[in-house]
Predict the 3D structure of the following.
Amino acid sequence: MHEALLTRQDVRGRPHLLMRIMVPENCALLHHRCHMEGSSTSLRATVLKYLLEGEGPEAIILWLESMRADFKSDLIDERIREVKEYIAMSKKADIVDVEAKLLVEVEQLVSACVSLLDLVFARLVRGGMAREYMPELERIHEENARVRQELDVLLAKRGADDLVVKADLPDAEEDWSKPDD
């Protein structure tokens, strides 16, 4: 067993508290090798995540509060703050993850629309029907290019540009801006 929030070291010299820290709100079963690395910050975060998922934040904080009378130091406040910070960090990470996924979906949609419009423009030019629609088609294409530029800037600011997957539509190779002869 590995204690996460209150350890044997924290209750050293007070054997009556040893069994009170060996509870599901504080302990996780680890492989021997992992237990030997128990003091590392990353392992502590992993164990805390496991405890929060298994026991829930309310139960862990309630258990910590039940231990308050046995500690004269600010240790209980520090541990409660640590739990709350981990919860806040997890929520923030979830929100950022959702935002990044939404940005990727928007980028894919814009990319698909631009590719599709390029294809339509090329076919109109090839079919000789572009002259009467050319001013409107150019305006739409310019607006799409502007939106695409703004989206690229937004993605770069969010650091999500490496997550972007381009739409898999054929590119129009013809120059649609030149009217048919």
